Amino acid sequence: xxxxxxxxxxxDIAKLSGVSKSTVSxxxxxxxxxxxxxxxxxMSIIEQYQFTPSKSARAMRGYGNxxxxxxxxxxxxxxxxxxxxxxxxxxxxxxxxxIIIESQFSADKVKEHLSMLKEKQADxxxxxxxxxxxxxxxxxxxxxxxxxxxxxxxxxxxxYDDIGAVTAVLxxxxxxxxxxxxxxxxxxxxxxxxxxxxxxxxxxxxxxxxIMPNACLGNLSYHSGYLLAESILxxxxxAIVCATDAIALGLNKYLHEKQINHIVVASIGHSExxxxxxxxxxxxxxxxxxxxxxxxQELLSMLKNESSIKAITVPCQLIN
Length: 320
What we know:
The chain has helices at about 10-15, 20-30, 35-50, 55-60, 80-95, 105-120, 160-175, 190-210, 220-235, 245-255, 270-275, 290-305; strands at about 65-70, 95-100, 125-130, 145-150, 155-160, 180-185, 215-220, 240, 265-270, 280-285, 310-315, 315-320. By secondary structure, the protein is α/β, with parallel strands linked by helices.
């Protein structure tokens, strides 16, 4: 065939495979009714010639010409949901169809999702990063992606001010409210930002101000905050900083059940649920909604070649 592989059409793939155009289309669309032997034959040709369906073909498949992939770590994350909710109106307003997918903190799932988005010729992607995600997986998307919550060199990244947030709440508790016994419930240090960075900031503050550290580390859940409450209370803190709003919810539930009312609970990040159930909680607003807006705007600018790769840190704000 005289055409270069980059100019092949579905008709060309059909001829090379010895099947009809409709069969090739059904293979591309993952039709389960296609026989395995036929699917393997067509996929072999597609892989051999590195064929990618055209945008017009993608539109015929019902995906439209403007698609944005959004890969969250988990669908029940309150912080990520806040960011995504602020992105969606921007994408809808520009005529994009967002596809929201869950990685479950799995690099393999991210690889699988990105492959699917590439096959569907998504215009761009926003990825909520996590420890263990390697930037090498993202190379194809370098100039049409925004990475959330972690910084990767040579990628546009939107990060939260983890150090500033923990420092702000500790300064307020220590200097303004005169607390000298401040506990900390965090996340295992395998998590580089929400875990290690926020915990290390707490330890550095304690060391600098000669405070005896009182910390317990668990996982990112309400249940963890609830279970670790008993341990953190053994050293009789007058205030406890929680690394996330989910942990703060668990801790508040424990204190409420035990009718312990004298301890100030502080949270890095907040949610409507935390504010509704426990309005006395002191928290630092990390700017999840602002991060979502910023990510959407940066991605759209990149897709129009109006923005270069950059790292952005969203400012935090103490809400007393």
